[in-house]
Amino acid sequence: MITMDLNADFGEGYGAYSFGADEALLASITSANIACGWHAGDPRTMRQSVERCLAAGVSIGAHPGYPDRQASGEDRWV
User: Fold this and answer.
1) Greatest distance between any 2 Cα atoms in the chain
2) Contact 32, 50 (CB under 8 A)
C-alpha cells in the first residue's frame, strides 16, 4: 500500500491575529509545521496548535523563523 504524508504550516498567528484556516486543515493533513520562534507564533497559539494536532492524530514538527514579524519571519531579502 502506498501512503502519503500531507503536510501544512499550522498555527500562524500572533495574539488576536490568525492567518490560516487551521481547524479546516485538521481533517485533511497528516502532519503540521507549528509556527514557532519568530515565525508568527506566540506561546498560547503554539500550545493550542500542538493540542489540536495531537487530538486529531496529526504529527507535529517545528516551523521556526527569523526575527522579522513584518515578513512573517521568512527569509525575504530584497
Assistant:
1) 45
2) no
Query: Which grid coordinates belong to 7?
Result: 503536510
Asked if pLDDT for residue 29 goes beyond 80, the answer is: yes
Is residue 76, in this structure, part of any structural domain at all?
no
User: Number of structural domains, the chain?
Assistant: 1
Domain carrying residue 40: 24-66
Cβ(35)–Cβ(65) under 8 Å? yes
Torsion of CA 63, 61, 35, 52, to 10 degrees: 170
36 part of a folded domain: yes
Q: How confident is the model at residue 11 (pLDDT cuts 50, 70, 90)?
A: confident
The CB density around residue 2, as the number of other CB atoms within 10 Å, is 3
